Give the backbone structure.
Amino acid sequence: MGCVQSLPGQLPRSGVVKVLVGSQAERIEEYAEHPFYNRLADYNRMDVTCQVDALLAAGRLAQDEHGHVVLGAPSNGQKTGNLSH
């Protein structure tokens, strides 16, 4: 969630995943110096996608009108956390 917090509305769901796993995709090159780039390199893209989808389903993340990922509303006053291993 820290990745989305630092890049609100800048990336679609797949882009967030690509940043987190350290994708070499051309679209992601501009994020190679970002602190969350490659943060979840030990996980495969499908596993990270499932985690992002779970956060979306739980409302902790949301998608804007363009399909870009933003933070969702914290439930019951809970603080949002970071995806990390």
